[in-house]
Amino acid sequence: QEKSSCLAAPLFGEACEISCDQLYELLKYAALGKCHNATQPSWCRIYHQSRLAGVVVIVLPEMSQLHFYKFYLQFRHLRRLFRHRFTLTPSANFLTSLYGPNVKPQNTAQGLTSTRSECISKSAESQRDPIIQKYGGKKRGLTSYILTLEEQKKNDYPVKGSSRCCGYVCTECNQQRTDSSPLFGLDCEMCLTAKGNEVTRVSLVDAQGRCLLNELVRPENPVVNYRTRFSGITREMLLPVKTRLSDIQARLKEMLPRDAVLVGHSLNNDLQALEMIHPSVIDTSLLFARSEGRRFRLKFLAKAVLGKEIQCEQKLGHDPAEDARAALELAQFFIEQGPAKVVAELNLEMLLTDENLAEVSQKRAALQPQGCRGQQQLNKPPHLSKPCFLECLQVTGQKPLLLGRQEPDSSGLCQSNLSTSNKQILQKALEDVPLSTFSIIQFSLGPENVSSHLLAELCEKVGNKLTDMLTIYAGPFEEGFCLKSVKKEFGRCGPIQSLTVLTDTYQPFVCIQYEVLEAAQLAVESLDGAEVAGSCIKVQRPVTAATLDCDVLIKELELDVENEGVIYVAGLKKSLTEKDLQEKFSQLKDLETLFLPKDLQSGKHRNCCFLKFQTSQSAVDALGVINGWTVVGSRLRSRKALASGHLRRWICQMNRSNRNQRRNVSYKDVQPLSDSDLKKKVQKLDHRIKKLYRSLQNNTLCVVLFPGVNSTYGSQSGLGLMGIKDDRRRSAC
């Protein structure tokens, strides 16, 4: 689409939660482009921003992700128009937060203007940063950042006593660590052999960046793939090499002091390949990790934090000495500056786009660790108060538009028609939006439909429905049947949350609750009528009022634009790595991405994955190929996907909150909620949004926001839907 703007949303499968600051970042860039210091948002990307015809934000106050999925079938147009969705952190003053930090919008006769206040040194947002939550804000010594034994186990580090580390060599560095203990950077390059990954090059650098070891290693087994593009290793390089892994192990044991601390980026991979155990490590991929364990690549951190270019495309493969030095300097930077300064100065979430990095390099130079060599010492530029992007719009002659209905708790943001209905707001929007390049339109269900006590009942209903959809009953079984066989067979459909044997019936049945919708549906489709544990069984969901429309809902979820070209695959053995799966599925035509869900607590991957294909037809073809495949003795099962990343995460949250509410909340004072009346209002709201969307010019960015709710009954995450209008396409790019 050479003449169209295009939107690239977060990576497939990721369940990221977007803050109001990040949403502000998107709107500012969409409205201003690279003028007025606006930069590409960190969590998505807008191509050809200069060709955008305008930006329209539709806000549905006091509504949340809960409302969207409760009335999923009623939001028929909304879910079909917008391909990109994201979870939104609820905000106490949502509309004000859209205008950026420390900005208070006001109304004037001429239009909407803003005033600025001084910046605050420490915001609530920084306090929620995962780095601050883990380490606090104060400077600490290096021992505070050494991984604990539990952290090493969780992140697959070789540890003493592990059955997987039989034959591994210990460095015998057993002396007590202090904040003065020496740091050493370590990095290895590996080639693929008949055994798996084997070390072919090892580099060790000291705290001053001096290279102490840079050695080629001859693998014990025949090389299958040299991976020259990444490792830099070729067959010719290894031909004269006589050094073996045992020689490197002996040299490292000899070189490392007894209180040495090893530093590396995902250092567990290097130690596993070296078959060595070292008790004290600092992992820079974990040190700078974001929420839900998201990690940055070493190349990105080196550029953003140190201002260094490593792993350049012009070079043949990676230089392990360069990588080891970069990891070491990153750790030194973090220790010397402290978590608070790292969070405040670097703002890592804002640095994810390459366009920002050149500017960032200059700003970071003043913060380089004293021990880093070759870093130019520059004075840090003074902080300048930047104007709100709505002010910048007015300076450039663009007039922002704000239309809405006044609520009892209104902050006076509405420019006009403060007491109008949704119908009148739509009519006004159809007239005025084409005249403005930036518009915020508020539609509301009315305070009587979004009150806290009704939210509580809504939450209970949705939670019960989700539980019923994740639950299946199977049986009857013979007395004394093998429960292990039943669990194994149903486990091949996906991760099981709970399994209960029901004995109140004439013959035993089992009740199984899955963690993902696809697993429950796959069990119903593939095991109903099958022979399991010696019995021909029936598999069905519980029959309740909530599940009567389950088949319709499943069908609509399959057709959801977010699930186009995506399939669910179950029956994977947990010993399989992502690399193993990539190799196995690489033969499938038009495969674009593989996503392997992980348990948020243990970090271990599930026995299922999601595959995204370039076209829906390629996904359908893949289903025919995969069903019946056997991988490492495990037979695979697959079907069309039902839930995207943000929906899977929300389902987990709803299951937890629903259990808590059942224990802690009494509903005796809650008035019955008339679903039929509310459904009609939602359908009208959906129709009005469709009408407004269809009136927009091509190349208009449209964002629909369910801001989320904070109430006495708990917090409900918000939801964002976005796309760039193009009549030549069904929805956004």
Protein traits:
seven-stranded mixed β-sheet, 20% strand, 33 strands, six-stranded mixed β-sheet, Nucleotidyltransferase, domain 5, alpha+beta, 733 residues
Assigned CATH architecture of the domain at 140-337: 2-Layer Sandwich
Distance between the termini: 9 Å
Mean pLDDT: 81
CATH topology of the domain at 140-337: Nucleotidyltransferase, domain 5
**What would CATH call the class of the domain at 140-337?**
Alpha Beta
Largest sheet: 7 strands, mixed
The strands making up the biggest β-sheet line up spatially as 2-5-33-30-4-17-16
> Helical element count?
26
Structural class: alpha+beta
Strand content: 15-25%
The tally of strands reads: 33
Shape: globular
C-alpha Rg (nearest Å)? 28 Å
Low-pLDDT segments, ≥5 res: 100-123, 352-363, 369-386, 406-417, 661-673
CATH homologous superfamily (4th level) name of the domain at 140-337: Ribonuclease H-like superfamily/Ribonuclease H
Helix content: 25-40%
Keywords: Exonuclease, Hydrolase, Nuclease, RNA-binding
GO molecular function, one term: RNA binding
Domain RRM: 470-544, 565-643
Protein name: REXO5 exonuclease
